[in-house]
Amino acid sequence: MLRGALLAALFAAAVPAAAQKVNVPAILPDASSADDIIVTALRIPREKLPTGVYWDYQTLLSSKIARENAQMFLRCALKSSDFKSIRMVVDGEPNSANARFAQGWIRKTHRGCYPPTTLAGYTTPAKPYTIADVGGSILDRGVIVESVLKSYAPDAALTPSITADAAVQGRFQQREGLRNRLRLPNDLDALVFASCLVRQQPVLATRLFQSEPGSLLERGLTQTIIVQGRECVGQASRVTVDPSLLRVYIIDAFYRWVVASRGLESLIPADA
Fold first, then answer.
1. pLDDT tens, residue by residue, 230-268
2. pTM of the full predicted structure?
3. Residue 249 in contact with residue 226, Cβ under 8 Å?
4. By the 8 A CB rule, do 237 and 208 touch?
């Protein structure tokens, strides 16, 4: 109960009642800017920004490749996966035995979907391992969440009026504070951060969902979301992120806000 209360407090912190007024340079794109302007944001000198957003070059390439492999595999695997397993991954409790088993089961029963060049070792832990071990990939879970969004709510969109609505915030906090209690600390911190960014910049988060993974637009949107929603990083002057991994968390948080806004338990229909 105590941990649930602490998690509820964390998610409550991600949805402040009133956003602080911040001064943003006029050269920085905002939610009303066109996508080509968002991409141009990558060329803004960081010293002119209130928060400099840097890429983690130690993981940038490997994460991009891992995501592409995960997308290739899951695009195939999800076509014939049972919806009970998919729903457990997306709407169950992250890191719970049931959710890990469901995710591992999808991977384990679709070996034919593995990319040919990685068949022998596609993010597989060292043996001996269980199906639950196979289902521990945060990246795979993120790709599954995004796939469900694109399949069942391709037109999903958030606006400031939605994420500022007290009823929506209440449903979000009540469900997510309990649901995420089994996440590991770093995993939970990343989700709380992303939930705050989506709350503060719902239009940009929507456009990130609509963008192509690994694209320049994705990077431009990532930079702009963090700078425009920089109160979520405690007014830090420098933030280093992996855009592929941050996308996983922002899309995860985006899904949770969409579910809360619609008053649903899942975007996957009960009769899917």
1. 889 887 888 899 999 999 999 999 999 999 999 999 999
2. 0.86
3. no
4. no
